[in-house]
Design goal:
This protein is about 30% helix and about 15% strand. The strands form three sheets. The protein has an eight-stranded mixed sheet. Strands 1-5-4 form a three-stranded mixed sheet, with no helix packed on it. A two-stranded antiparallel ribbon has the order 11-12. Helix 6 packs parallel to helix 8. With about 300 residues, the chain is an alpha/beta fold. The longest helix has 15 residues. It contains nine helices and 13 strands. Strand 11 and strand 12 form a beta hairpin. It has a single domain, classed as Alpha-Beta Horseshoe (pyruvate-formate lyase- activating enzyme). The protein starts with about 25 loop residues before the first strand and ends in a 10-residue tail after the last helix. The chain binds iron/sulfur cluster (SF4). The site of iron/sulfur cluster has 9 residues, from loops.
Length: about 300
């Protein structure tokens, strides 16, 4: 018999490698894994490992940076050579040094298109105890994950916004109440939980809306919360397919080239959340050093172990 190329390859059933017929697919030629670096050099974000198992997302949030990344072509496509992907992940997992984390939600939502790929990756990470798998999602498609042998090596990070924001700018994603319910299920199944509140958007009544969300997050007791405020590259504006109303909130251009709400508003939003989430580890994503200086959040964030 041919020697398996990664541990457990011979246990994989053919059907676990088949993607639903309704999904657009193609072979990936370039590597699936790469180290992502913040390009501008103006922010404090750490580098992180990302897995490109799919491109695009069916949720089409108005602010989504993928509109710029893929020049408006955000309809999802999944890479079909799953065995090649698993072999590459397996080689990545064999790294004997410090703990690393593999992010599956940078160029797509980790669960919005299908759960087939995460169902392969979660048990693979569960067979070792050094490196972590990160799912980042607005989906509530978690039922198929609850009984998997994750061995505490998978972190599921739910992206949340208050219903007042989600209704306007995330209309195709499951409502936040469903995401919260999915998060509770994952906690009951023993998964490590993180929450991302990003991008916060200063809609009318934002203080009340984000206060309520913070209370619900505090009840979940996630291991880490990552906050971010609305930020848009010019390319997102150029290729935006959805409601352009979200652009009304960005009025200044910061040295990293993004458009953002005024610094004063961002600080007020972060301060509100930091005060409501006291006792939890709370980091801030893709912000300027001046904001970190003013608020002194945790140096840890969603993208690192
Ligand atoms: S869920 Fe995430 S990846 Fe999908 S459209 Fe919204 S912001 Fe983009």
């Amino acid at each position: 018999m041919e020697k398996p190329l990664f541990p457990g390859e011979n246990l994989l059933r053919a059907e676990s490698l088949s993607l639903p017929a309704s999904i657009a697919k193609r072979r990936r030629v370039s590597p699936f894994i790469r180290l992502f670096r913040e390009h501008s050099g103006k922010l404090l974000c750490p580098s992180f490992w990302m897995l490109a198992w799919a491109n695009g997302c069916p949720y089409h949030c108005s602010y989504c940076y993928l509109q710029g990344t893929f020049k408006g072509e955000t309809d999802p496509i999944v890479f079909s050579n799953l065995k090649d992907m698993l072999r590459e992940v397996s080689r990545w997992l064999a790294y004997p040094g410090e703990t690393r984390l593999l992010n599956t939600g940078e160029l797509c939502d980790s669960l919005a298109i299908t759960d087939v790929v995460m169902k392969l990756l979660i048990p693979l990470f569960g067979r070792q105890s050094r490196h972590k798998l990160l799912l980042l999602t607005k989906s509530d498609r978690v039922d198929g994950l609850l009984k998997l042998p994750h061995n505490g090596q998978t972190i599921i990070s739910f992206s949340l916004n208050p219903p007042e924001v989600s209704r306007l700018y995330e209309p195709d994603a499951p409502p936040p109440g469903k995401r919260l319910e999915a998060a509770r299920k994952c906690v009951r199944a023993g998964y490590r939980l993180r929450i991302r509140v990003d991008p916060m958007i200063p809609v009318e009544g934002w203080r009340k809306a984000y206060s309520r969300l913070a209370e619900e997050i505090a009840e979940l007791k996630p291991e880490r919360v990552t906050l971010g405020c609305l930020r848009l590259y010019p390319s997102v504006k150029a290729f935006s397919q959805r409601s352009k109303a979200v652009f009304q909130y960005v009025s200044e251009r910061t040295p990293d080239g993004r458009f953002r709400p005024p610094e004063k508003t961002r600080i007020e939003m972060y301060q509100l959340m930091l005060s409501k989430l006291q006792g939890l580890e709370v980091g801030i994503c893709k912000e300027l050093p001046s904001i970190h200086e003013a608020l002194k959040p945790s140096p840890l964030c969603n993208c690192i172990p």
